Amino acid sequence: MSRILVVEDEAHLAEGLQYNLEAEGHVVEIAVDGPSAATRLADPERPLDLVILDLMLPGMSGFEVARRARAAGNYVPILVVSAKDEAADVVRGLEEGGDDYLTKPFRLEELLARVRGLLRRRRWDRVPREDESPRSVTFGRVAVHFDRFELETPSGTLRLTTREAGLLRALVEREGQAVTRGELLEDVWGLRADTNTRVVDSFIVRLRRYVEEDPARPRHILSVRGHGYRFVS
User: Which domain holds residue 189?
Assistant: First the structure.
């Protein structure tokens, strides 16, 4: 049984989501504005398993709610659900800390499938398996701990978001191979390979700042022109 926070100011939508998520066996809480959502997320005594977050909220935007949670070291999976469907909004929602993005109006079946996927991935991250990829990888001057979402660098330890860690792991697992943007969209974000977005490139820029001595001349996360990216340890 998972505890889910629905952050939505439209009462009929929030109540509908609560009804259907509870029918799936989850415990559901509702926050109707940004400040109350931020306060709930900051409560360490009552951890959440998932947040469904609208972006246009009274008092504080969903962007800010997600940003504050990540800045505080809270890496609960966040599913952004918003009427904002411009590519810039989708990218910003993911960059501020969202793990997935669904535009309104949406089909209930799709939302429930995304919820299941995020919860399943969270369980996988918690439970080691004999056949899984290594939990920690060292290359260059950094060490990545995928189970803790941490990156150790000469200047200190950084916390990775779920998507940052997922993208880096997807590249590490295919070391030496050229991986297309489409493959990364499918594997890391659960999006169609032909989705028109630059989110992969935006996250690559961020990862290079973390792991490369000179991000302008990367040695580990290499571009493959006209194709995608390749990881070299």
Answer: 136-231
Query: Is the same domain home to 199 and 147?
Result: yes
Sequence-distant (≥ 6) Cβ neighbours of residue 228 within 8 angstroms: 178, 179, 180, 181, 182, 183, 184, 200
Number of domains in the chain: 2
Instruction: Kindly write down the DSSP assignment for every residue of 98-156, as one continuous string.
Output: -SEEEESS--HHHHHHHHHHHHHHHHHHHS--TTSPPSEEEETTEEEETTTTEEEETTE
Token pair, residue 168, equals: 């880096």
Q: At what angle do helices 62-71 and 87-95 cross, to 10 degrees?
A: 30
- Domain termination site, one of 92, 126, 160: 126
pTM (predicted TM-score): 0.61
Could you report the average pLDDT of every consecutive run of 10 residues in the chain (233 residues)? 92 94 94 96 91 94 90 85 79 78 86 82 50 73 87 88 85 92 83 79 90 94 94 94
Phi, psi of 211 (to 5 degrees): -110, -15
Residue 144 in tokens: 């990545």
Round to whole Å and give the CA distance between 60 and 37.
Answer: 9
| Co-location of 40 and 140 in the same domain | no
